[in-house]
Q: What sequence folds into this?
C-alpha cells in the first residue's frame, strides 16, 4: 500500500471536560458524505462518550463505525488495543475514508503518534493532524480544567503523589504535540478573559501552531480534516515533559459508575454535581439520566461545579438508563459521592 493510499487519522486530545466529544459530534454531523469512523478512548467503566456520538444522524458514520476502548488510557495500552482496532476498521465495507481518535482526558498524545511509525501500522494509516481541545473558560480563570481548588487541597495533603502538578504536565504535553489548538467556550469569555486563555495556550504551543476559537464545538471541518500533515514523521522533534520516561501511569485518578433512578426535575442534578465537586474534589461527571415523564434521555456533562445538560434523543429499547461516570483523584470517598449523585 503506497503512502497515497494511507487512511488519514485525526487525533483529538484535550483535558477532562474541554469539549472533545462535542467537537467530534459536530464533525460527524458535518461529514459531507465523507465515510468516517471514530475510536473513543473512554476513561471509566461505562462507554458514555461513545453513546454521546452514536445516533448523530449522519449515515456517513454508522454506529458500528464508532469503537470504544475502555481498558485504560490508549497511550498506555496502544500495543494491545490500537493496532487490532485499526485493522478491524480498515476491513469495513464500504471503505472508511477518515478515522477520528478521541483520546481520554488523561492521555499523552506522543506515544500514540509514535505508534503510527510501527511497520504494521505505517503502511496503512497516517496522522492527518493532532488537535488539542482546551477549556477557554477554565484557562481564563488560571486553571487547566474546572474547579481545581479541591484538587490542590487534596494534593497538598497527600504525600504519595509523584508530581507537584500532574494535570498541568498533561496539559502542557498535549499542547506541545498539537498541530492545531481549539479554544472552546469562547462565548463565556470577555476580552480580558480571552486574552488570558490565549496567553496560557500560546505559552505551551510550538511556534507556528494555529489557535481556533469555538463555541459548542462548532468548527468548520475543512479547518480540522484533510490537513495531510503526517505528524508521525515529526513527532520525535516535539519536546514534552515526559520524554525521559519509559512509561507512565494515571494512578492519580479513580472513577466510579453511579446508577440513578429517574429524576423529577433536572435542576436537582445541578445541586448534586456542585456538592460532589465542592466536598469531594470530583473533576468530571458525565453520562445520561432519565427524567420522569420525558421520553428523551438527558445528557449530562460537568466539569467541577459547571454543569451542561440537554435532551439529545429518545431512549433505545435495550439501553440502560440513568448512569453517570464520576472521575476524581485516587482515594476519593466513592460511597459518599455515589450516595450524593443518586440522591
A:
Amino acid at each position: 500500500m503506497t503512502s497515497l493510499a494511507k487512511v488519514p487519522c485525526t487525533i483529538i486530545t484535550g483535558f477532562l471536560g474541554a469539549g472533545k466529544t462535542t467537537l467530534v459530534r459536530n464533525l460527524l454531523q458535518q461529514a459531507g458524505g465523507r465515510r468516517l469512523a471514530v475510536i473513543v478512548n473512554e476513561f471509566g467503566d461505562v462507554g458514555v462518550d461513545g453513546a454521546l456520538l452514536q445516533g448523530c444522524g449522519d449515515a456517513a458514520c454508522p454506529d458500528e463505525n464508532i469503537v470504544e476502548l475502555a481498558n485504560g488510557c490508549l497511550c498506555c495500552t496502544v500495543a494491545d488495543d490500537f493496532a487490532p482496532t485499526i485493522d478491524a476498521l480498515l476491513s469495513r465495507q464500504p471503505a472508511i475514508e477518515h478515522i477520528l481518535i478521541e483520546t481520554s482526558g488523561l492521555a499523552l498524545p506522543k506515544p500514540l503518534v509514535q505508534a503510527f511509525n510501527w511497520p504494521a501500522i505505517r503502511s496503512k494509516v497516517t496522522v492527518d493532524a493532532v488537535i488539542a481541545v482546551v477549556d477557554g473558560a477554565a484557562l481564563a480563570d488560571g486553571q487547566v480544567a474546572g474547579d481545581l481548588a479541591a484538587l490542590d487541597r487534596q494534593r497538598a495533603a497527600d504525600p504519595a503523589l509523584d508530581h507537584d502538578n500532574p494535570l498541568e504536565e498533561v496539559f502542557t504535553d498535549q499542547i506541545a504535540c498539537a498541530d492545531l489548538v481549539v479554544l472552546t467556550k469562547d462565548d463565556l469569555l470577555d476580552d480580558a478573559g480571552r486574552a488570558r486563555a490565549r496567553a496560557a495556550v500560546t505559552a505551551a504551543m510550538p511556534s507556528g501552531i494555529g489557535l481556533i476559537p469555538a463555541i459548542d464545538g462548532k468548527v468548520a471541518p475543512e479547518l480540522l480534516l484533510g490537513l495531510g500533515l503526517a505528524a508521525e514523521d515529526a513527532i520525535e522533534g516535539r519536546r514534552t515533559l515526559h520524554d525521559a520516561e519509559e512509561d507512565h501511569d494515571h494512578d492519580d485518578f479513580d472513577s466510579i459508575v453511579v446508577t440513578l433512578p429517574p429524576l423529577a426535575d433536572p435542576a436537582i442534578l445541578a445541586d448534586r454535581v456542585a456538592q460532589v465537586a465542592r466536598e469531594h474534589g470530583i473533576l468530571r461527571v458525565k453520562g445520561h439520566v432519565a427524567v420522569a415523564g420525558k421520553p428523551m434521555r438527558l445528557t449530562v456533562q460537568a466539569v467541577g461545579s459547571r454543569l451542561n445538560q440537554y435532551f439529545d434523543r429518545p431512549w433505545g429499547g435495550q439501553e440502560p438508563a440513568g448512569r453517570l461516570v464520576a472521575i476524581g483523584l485516587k482515594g476519593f470517598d466513592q460511597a459518599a459521592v455515589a450516595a450524593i449523585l443518586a440522591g
In short: Residues 267-280 form the longest helix (14 residues). The chain has two domains: 7-237, 253-342.
